[in-house]
Amino acid sequence: MGDVDVLFLHPSTRVLTAEGEVVRYLAIPMGTFALADLLERSGYSARIVHTGLERMLDPSYRVEDSLRMLEPKLVGIDLHWYCHAYDAIELAGCVKRYSNAKVVLGGMTASFFAEELLSSFGCVDYVIVSDAELPMLELTRAVTGDGDVHDVPNLLYRKGSVVKGSGRAYVASGEDLDKLTCSNIRLLKDWDLYIRLIHENDALSPKLKTQGWLMIGRGCSVNCSYCGGASLAHRSIFGRQRPIFRSPEKVVEDLRVFEELGISCAYMDFDPYPDRKFYYRLFELVRREKVDISSQFLVWSLTDRNFVREFRRAFNPLYTTLTISPETGSESVRLLNKGFYYDNQSLLRWLEMLEEEMVPVELYFASGLSGEDVEEFKKTMRLGERILRAYHNVVGASCSPLFLEPCSPRFLMPKKYGIRLKFKRFSDFYEVYRCFAEGAVPPSRLGYETEHLDEPRIIELSSKFNEMVNSLMMSEKANPMVE
Ligand code: SF4
């Protein structure tokens, strides 16, 4: 089956525990599917291998098996999320040891640290900085013998010890996104298992729910302090001034393919404008086209009742939920950290409205926010408990310690947000995930401490919240009628 033009290798986040290796964060960036499909439609052959999934299926799996079988000319490794910092480089090293393929990295983390990646790791030939569609097409053309890599837009490469670029820039528009198809997940080896496991990363036991991530657009209109995908990052990395959307028609085409592939729930995490004009058109089309699928929709701000009704009418209720991240019970902390602010009373009224509309909801909280101390976190505990006791449509609530995200406002302006950075370079992210993969204790787990809280305390606060949630859920199971 050799002679594939481009092989996309998805890295894994491996954690070595006393019980053995666990693979975390299974999702593949949506753009990887779009790129592989774009290459296929342009006359090249492309495949995707999820190395973590393959290791879960067969612990003796080695990436060299895929390289030998497919003999790619170019290997694309997504380094979008920082949690793949270590494994992306490990994979690049393997490609160099076991094949003659060129290695290109892309994604937000790779874009942000492009120069360091090329200066420090000889196994990385190229980095695509920002949008990758046209660059990947031109790079493939060049690597397969018909073009010059030095002319590829958004591409950085090494010449001797110097990092260089073509000087050509490409910023994708909404029209460009409309030329993409994001649902060709059959290009992924073992895709049928992937859609079962993408929402469950703790065990390889097929679940009834199957999920696909839906590409709706790119960018954000606000800046949450902790987010590496905020407006600031899109402006500085991508040169994108405002969010862009695909057309509702293209999104529905992908939903239709999801349905045909047996995907029961579409994961939708793109909500940059509170007026949500785009979604009214999309929901109408989903209904008109009679697409039968559930939606896990992550709202980035509170919605009105009309939106909730239209949402509920559009999707199969089986796995349909709304998810919101208030992050904290402290209004002053929320104001400092979140781009879309709402007070607690508004949040509670919104939950009440969702209960009336019979829409299940999940909530995410965080510890380690700027301006948060132990007293402020007590407000998070109180709000979480109040919500869980009062609203029966809340199907999940959890709290996580914030991890330092590259290119987030806190990373770029630590003083303004009252944090001390422990991670500054790519090598810091690489090191922490190397430690996780090898079962060692990393020098820092979160990459920062705040002016009020050190790392152990931040981690402990999240644990306390989750213990409270578990005990409330257990007591509700034991006494379902007790309020
Ligand atoms: S709303 Fe906040 S968390 Fe969501 S993408 Fe925008 S900046 Fe990031």
From TrEMBL:
Keywords: Iron, Iron-sulfur, Metal-binding, S-adenosyl-L-methionine. Its cofactor is [4Fe-4S] cluster. InterPro entries: BchE-like, Cobalamin-bd, Elp3/MiaA/NifB-like_rSAM, rSAM, rSAM_horseshoe, rSAM_sf. It holds the Pfam family B12-binding. Residues 10-150 form the B12-binding domain. GO terms for molecular function: catalytic activity; cobalamin binding; iron-sulfur cluster binding; metal ion binding. It comes from the Archaea. Residues 206-443 form the Radical SAM core domain. This is Uncharacterized protein. It comes from Candidatus Terraquivivens tikiterensis. The lineage of its organism: Archaea, Nitrososphaerota, Candidatus Wolframiiraptoraceae, Candidatus Terraquivivens.
